[in-house]
Amino acid sequence: MPLQGVWTADSGGLPPWKGDYHNDLNTQMTYLAYQAAGRFDEGRCFLEFLWDRLPRFRRFAKEFYGTAGAAVPGVMSAAGEPLGGWGHYSLSPTMSAWLGHLFYLHWRYTADDRFLRERAWPWCREIGECMKALLKRDADGRLKLPLSTSPEIHNNSQAAWLTPMSNYDLACLKMLFLGLEEMGGAVGDTTAAASWAETAAELGDFHTRPDGVLKLSPDEDLAESHRHLSNLIGIHPFNLITVDGSPRDRQIIDASTKRWDELGTKAWCGYSFSWMSCLRARAGQAEAALRYLDIYVKAFILRNGFHANGDQLSAGFSAMTYRPFTLEGNFLASQAVHEMLLQSWSAHPGTGDPGVLRLFPATPWRWHEASFDNLRAEGGHRVSARRQNNGTTWFRVVAGSTGIVRVRDDFGGRRPNWNRRGVKEVGGNHEVRLGTGETLEASLPKPARVPDPPADAAHPLVIVRKVIKPNTLPLRVGADSNGENRFIGDIARASVFARALSAAETAELAAPQSGQPADLPDCLVALDFESLADGQLVNDGSAKLPARLVGLGVLVDTGELLPGKALHLDGNGYVEIPHDPLLDCPEGVSLEAWIRPTELGTGRLLDKSPAGAATAYLLDMYPGNALRFIFRDPHVVYDAKLPVGKWSHVAATVDGKTGECAPYTREGWEHTEVPVRLRLRLGEYPLSYVCCTPAGEVPRTSTSVCSQPSRVYLNGRKVARQRLPPEVAPGVLWRP
User: Fold this and answer.
1) By the 8 A CB rule, do 269 and 307 touch?
2) If you placed Cys at 419, which of 51, 441, 455, 565 could pair as Cys (CB 3.0 to 4.6 Å)?
3) Long-range pairs for 539-543: beta carbons < 8 A, 24 or more residues apart
4) Which region, left, alpha or beta, applies to residue 638 given φ > 0 means left and ψ of -120 to 50 means alpha?
5) Crossing angle between the packed helical segments 270-282 and 286-299, to the nearest 10 degrees
6) Distance of alpha carbon 593 from the chain centroid
7) For residue range 647-692, what is the model confidence (pLDDT) as tens digits?
8) Span between the terminal Cα atoms of the chain, in Å
9) Structural domains in the chain?
10) The model's pTM
11) What pLDDT is recorded for position 666?
């Protein structure tokens, strides 16, 4: 799938990054979780897609690089054509080597000999031929690319050309060549296998500082926060630097992850967090893995579950707060959970080593009980396991191929009770030879108690949100920020207060013969539409906030119910007040108006929120003749059934400190307690609603969606209240 898969929005323009196939991370990470999940048919679709385009990739290698073999453009169309972009990455040859890793993993996880011979070996071999032809020897005899980069370091600048060879290029090539060594041996081509092993060795070692921190290139350190973990790729997804490796390997992992923590996350995208979660799990750093995954899930996912790249809560996790949707972040999050529960990589890629089954290798402390069924491991094995009181108590392995099966002894001295004889203890592992379809099963005593938490235990993430997030949009009466969703009807009064009015104050404003809004403290806007001169309207609330009519509108009599005049809008005009910091209302806001709609629709009443988003505040009739109050997302919707051709008073308040919010309308309603269950983005919990219905009608359940305690009012009467559980503080996101 390309960046957005089949969910590309048809909005009249190109989707983010052209909706192309980005092969410098996105496609590879989108297809990283299917192996452990056992979704081999779905994953193979992409591999067949790449196989079918092999003739085009051969032509690209010949025409662009001047080599035999094949190369995949870093940024390409569905036909495999290069689409260009930042040339350092869109034309980098090592993107092809990273794609080759997916063929290698598919073979390792399926143990499918036919796939190896007919797809993985020939496809990767052609990529390897191109890569090998591009390499040149330096003065020390090491093989290097003449040009080298590390996505997406230094963006689209001259500085992006790093001194050959970057750790990213080195890792991609080394993994490809070791994979070819292993696959060559498996198909019986020992000569080719030896040649690929020699080429891998001639690439040399990774570039590190004396303390073990992985550098970008031989002469450059990573000096600032960055979204792409390119210099760490040898740790994950490649198993080139592992905790089962040498003491130097472990020093590199510890020092490099510590350095990334020091640099912070301000330049990260959403996928950076889920990738880092995978990497920390691979390194056995369970608590860090959970922390990064928790941040990703709570701050970088939209309500529909899509990964939006930017920090959607503006909670300070990243300076990126935009919302372009791409797929790979969620698949990395899935893989992070897989890595926490089961790992099976080999510490010796290229040798044909079967790897080790590691049960719950990075399961965080607070997951005291956990289980999984039929996750897949390298070798084609199906693995299930249970964990209680932070210890493995049962597991089963169904062999997917004939050979030695190894299970890491991480049982804290508890002895497994095996279902078969012949299981041996070898070097910290339990080993047995199984035939395809045979089962290894064991149970272990349940630990007596949950162990004490580690010093770095990851506590549940609590994100305190601003109740009202300011923006610089104008305040509009009768239209949205794009000048659309226009209200059609009459407005006799429109007011804004820089605080949450009390229920009594709101009820007073809902009386037809009430006093003036400007008489109440903290009134910013008070439009009574008594006069209209040269398009200017009098704002009795603050002289610093002038109001003007944009387009067409006329003053009309209000009739017998209300005194004075009203502004009639027929869809060709609205009122606008330019932005001023006074309108930020950090302490709270109250919106109120008398309205007489002449048409049903989604008309905006008072709106300072961007269309399609949720900052500042908005009160409108969406959907239809309902009443909706937005100050943050999720928001409150009440099925008010506002009458057409009749006057209604509408109001909404929110406290900027506590998050208490309340939409209001006027008189004629009864109070009825209705228990409902409401699904939020981060979980669900029982809520108690007070809903209103006209006298004599059956009570209706509110469809409100709101993350803070809220009150809903119609015509001055309270119609809904949402309550969080008592242990949850107002204004704080909560997950059960």
Assistant:
1) no
2) 441
3) 539/577, 540/516, 541/495, 541/496, 541/517, 542/582
4) beta
5) 160
6) 38
7) 989 999 998 888 777 766 653 222 222 222 222 222 222 222 222 2
8) 34
9) 5-208 (1.50.10.10), 316-457 (2.60.40.1180), 475-722 (no CATH)
10) 0.72
11) 56
